[in-house]
Write a structure and sequence with these properties.
Number of strands: 0
CATH topology of the largest domain: Serine Threonine Protein Phosphatase 5, Tetratricopeptide repeat
Strand content: under 5%
Order of helices and strands: HHHHHHHHHHHHHHHHH
CATH architecture of the largest domain: Alpha Horseshoe
Number of helices: 17
Helix content: 55-70%
C-alpha cells in the first residue's frame, strides 16, 4: 500500500493526468536524471546548485512529486546525493508532509530494505537529523514500511533493525516514539490514531496490531517496544497504553514462554515506569504474566514488583 492509496481512505479520489505532469516536469526530470546515470560514467556534467534543484523538487505538488518519483531511478544515487536531498528537508519552511513522505518512501525505503551492512556515516547522519526535524515523515516514509516486512512471518533484517534502533534512541522525539509504540501495540484503528487527530500520521499497518489480530507480536516488535520504553527522555505512558503493553506481553508469554525480549520489556516497565504501573493498578496482572513465563529474567521482574509494592505501601500518597 503506497501513500497515495492510504490517503485516499480519508480524501476524495481524483485522476492524475500523468502525461500532462510529465510534460511540465520534463526539464526538471532531465536535470535530476543525471543522478540515475551509473556512477562511473564519464559523461556526467556537474549539476550546479544541487540544493536549489532539491528545493524545486520538494516544492512541487503532491501529484507532481508522486509522478516524478515513479520516473526517477533512485537506486543508482550515491549516498552524498541522497544525503544532500534529505538535508534540504531541514531548510524548507513549508515542507508538505505528503510530499516529504512520498520522497522518503520512494528513495530511502528501497535503499534501506536492501541493506546488508550499516548505512554510511554520511547518510546515517542525514537520516538521523531528518528524524529530529521531521519525525512523522520518518515514521510514515521509512519505519512503518520497514515494520510491514513482519507480515507473512518476515523479520526485519539486522541492518534495518540497527537503523530503526538508532532512530529511536538518537533521533525521534518522545512524541514520535510514543506514536510508534502505540501503532505497534494497538494499530491506529483501535486507538484512534488517524490523520484527523494526530498531525502528520497517515499510515495504516494493521499487521502491527496485537489487539485486533490473532498474530503474536514478533521478537522484533518486542525488542523495539523495549527500546522505545527505555530510551531517554522517557515517554509518558498512560493507563490504556500500559494495559496494552501488559496485554501484548501476556500474548507473547502464552505463545513463547521462554521469550527473552518480553521479559526485558517488563523489566524496563517495572524499573523505569513504576509510577505508571501503580496508576494503572496493574501490578497483579503483571505478576500473573511473569508467573506464566519460563524465562529466568522473570525473577528480576517479580523482585521489581515486590519493591514497587513496598514503596507504595510506605508512601502515604501512593507516589513512588
Amino acid at each position: 500500500m503506497d501513500l497515495a492509496s492510504q490517503s485516499s481512505q480519508t480524501e476524495p479520489t481524483h485522476i492524475i493526468d500523468t502525461e500532462a505532469i510529465l510534460q511540465r516536469l520534463e526539464p526538471f526530470l532531465n536535470k535530476i536524471h543525471q543522478y540515475s546515470i551509473p556512477h562511473d560514467s564519464q559523461n556526467i556534467d556537474p549539476i550546479p546548485d544541487r540544493s536549489s534543484l532539491f528545493q524545486e523538487f520538494l516544492c512541487l505538488s503532491f501529484d507532481e512529486v508522486k509522478t516524478a518519483c515513479e520516473h526517477i531511478d533512485f537506486t543508482n544515487w550515491t549516498d552524498d546525493a541522497l544525503a544532500d536531498m534529505y538535508d534540504t528537508f531541514g531548510s524548507m519552511d513549508n515542507l508538505g508532509h505528503l510530499v516529504a513522505c512520498t520522497v522518503v518512501q520512494s528513495s530511502l525505503y528501497p535503499y534501506v530494505i536492501r541493506l546488508k551492512t550499516s548505512l554510511s556515516r554520511l547518510l546515517m547522519n542525514s537520516v538521523l537529523q531528518l528524524g529530529k526535524v521531521h519525525g512523522n515523515v520518518i515514521l510514515n516514509g521509512l519505519i512503518f514500511p520497514l515494520l510491514n516486512t513482519t507480515e507473512n512471518n518476515k523479520e526485519v533484517g539486522q541492518s534495518q533493525m540497527e537503523l530503526i534502533s538508532k532512530l529511536i534512541t538518537n533521533s525521534l522525539s518522545p512524541s514520535s516514539r510514543l506514536t510508534l509504540l502505540k501503532f505497534m501495540i494497538a494499530g491506529n484503528s483501535s486507538i484512534g490514531l488517524t490523520r484527523h487527530n494526530i498531525k502528520g500520521i497517515i499510515s495504516d499497518y494493521p499487521m502491527l496490531s496485537s489487539s485486533t489480530t490473532t498474530t503474536v507480536p514478533s521478537d522484533t516488535i518486542m525488542q523495539l517496544l523495549n527500546i522505545i520504553s527505555s530510551s531517554q527522555p522517557l515517554i509518558s505512558l498512560d493507563t490504556m497504553t500500559i494495559r496494552q503493553l501488559i496485554q501484548t506481553s501476556h500474548q507473547v508469554v502464552q505463545a513463547r514462554p521462554k521469550d527473552k525480549a518480553c521479559m526485558q520489556l517488563l523489566l524496563t516497565l517495572t524499573s523505569k515506569h513504576a509510577q505508571s504501573l501503580v496508576d494503572a493498578n496493574i501490578l497483579d496482572d503483571l505478576e500473573a504474566v511473569c508467573n506464566e513465563s519460563n524465562m529466568f529474567l522473570k525473577r528480576s521482574v517479580l523482585g521489581q514488583i515486590a519493591s514497587i509494592r513496598k514503596k507504595t505501601q510506605d508512601s502515604p500518597s501512593g507516589l513512588l
